[in-house]
Automatic annotation (TrEMBL):
Coiled-coil intervals, chain numbering: none
Residue ranges constituting the Thiamine pyrophosphate enzyme central domain according to the UniProt record: 219-353
Family as reported in the entry's similarity comment: Belongs to the TPP enzyme family.
PROSITE patterns (UniProt xref): TPP_ENZYMES (PS00187)
One Gene Ontology MF term: 3D-(3,5/4)-trihydroxycyclohexane-1,2-dione hydrolase activity
Domain Thiamine pyrophosphate enzyme TPP-binding, residue spans: 422-575
Protein's recorded name: 3D-(3,5/4)-trihydroxycyclohexane-1,2-dione acylhydrolase (Decyclizing)
Organismal lineage: Bacteria, Pseudomonadati, Pseudomonadota, Gammaproteobacteria, Oceanospirillales
Amino acid sequence: METLRLTMAQALVKHLQVQFTVIDGVEMPLFGGVWAIFGHGNVAGIGEALAQVKNEFTTFRAHNEQGMALAACAYAKQHRCQRIMACTSSIGPGATNMITAAGLAMANRLPVLFLPGDVFATRTPDPVLQQVEHFNDPTMSVNDCFRPVSRYFDRINRPEQLITSLPAAINTMLDPITCGPATLALPQDVQAMVFDFPTSFFAKKVHKLRRNRTDVDQLAAAVDAIKKAKKPLILLGGGVHYSLAVEEAKAFIEQYHIPACETQAGKGALAWDHKFNLGSVGVTGSSAANAAAQEADLIIAIGTRLQDFTSASRTLFANPDHTLLSLNVTPFDAEKHRSLPLVGDAKVTLQELMAELGDHLTPSSWVDHVHALNQTWLSAVDQATALPTQANDKHYLPTDANVIGVINRFASVDSTIVQAAGGLPGELHKLWRTSSDLGYHVEYGFSCMGYELAGGLGVKMAAPEREVIVMVGDGSYLMLNSEIATSVMLGLKLTIVVLDNRGYACINRLQQACGGEPFNNLLQNCHTVEAGAPKTDFAAHAKALGAASEKVACLAELEAALVRARASDKTYVIAIDTDPMPSTQAGGAWWDVAVPEVSTRNTVTNAEHQYKIAKQQQPY
């Protein structure tokens, strides 16, 4: 057998280099590179291996391990899970910094390869710098924290273990059913160990999107349910994007005249002004979509995890005779909510459904009814996002909806909006209008504060031809902003709009909705020195990180600043003060947030009473 004598780290990197994927008929490397912050646990091993191929396989240097890993998540999401990045760190805080991003990748079913350094497999120098010792288990390190947030986990304690484990990790990440993060913990001594690897381990491999077909009996049951339905409604989930089934979903909707709505992950699958698009659904849904969901006798959920925001904590589908038909690539998701399961790839299953449904049509009375509901909703969006009369008033604090309206009118079909946490995802889900399936990138499976700026970086890496606009609140900005400097360093231009409402406004509103007093969320309600919390100059801070920036005092100035941002040749940050209290009330549905059963506050007691009434809508 022909072999190649390499260190384990060299073999790992070489194997990654020969993995390829096919996108739109074009063959390209599966891995877009490696994010790395080196420390004593990875600099000598994998660091040296990466340095040897730096001209063929790019290593990107970040400023924060969580930030680089979040960028890798966004890269995979924007590439619809067809391309991957790897992330390597040192053995201690570098590794644990990536765990939040691993959780995000796990929740959102995104492929990222985590390669944290680890303690010595030989244990000879134990305890080494950054090692966390367990008195009763010397085999455990901080990397074991990756286990619950990894689809695949292994610790490579011998070089030859890589031969079976690395392909298994890649296979796990690329399989639509198991797609998610994989972690290979790399003991620092094993990284440097040599082994005679078979040359077959470095043979080129081309991966293609796998499409599993549905069971014939499940398909027949689905066809029967669709034909019997008088009031069907489609829920478009993220799986429509990841299956590359946007055109099939559109054709299915148009062929059978079935109204559709979108989850956060599914938004953009249908153009906002499509005649059958009722907009967002669920807790952050449109009035039209939610009214239709309450009346529908058949809900066809395509590629969605049916999380609580989508189902309004299991209260949205209120028709007592409704059927929930769940088309999903994974049985785990297809069986949720006592659904009628249709397990299969969205693209090919929609094609098979169309082959069986023939000339079936949804009753026109239902279509006309929901169309009228949608016209009312579209008018509400127009009103919420319209430029207010105070556009030039520097004393007026704009709402999130005001700012969204300005940015949405500025954006083009080639723009991608990026957001993640706080109140903005809800406002964007309701109000943002996109005509492109690549135009809406909001991470709401993990709702990770700090994703926005790093995520914008990952989106720009995946789609350098697109204009990437990041909307971020002051809370998320302060939590993780260092990758602004990385974007400047790499020449990956972002337009960033910072909405400064002086605190965590969304959770402050939720706190009060549950009867609580405003406490520890807005800066004015926090424990501070007598002078209060400082007013952060976000424009000055961004400039210090290398970006171009400015502070605007009103919506009219924001409009002009966006034009300057588009003309800039590097990342451009615009800061604007906003009102922390208003949010769009139209649409929306109930969300199960437990309220204390005992409290000295009457507002909490009243909220708990209303909470118990609302919970009676749940089936169990």
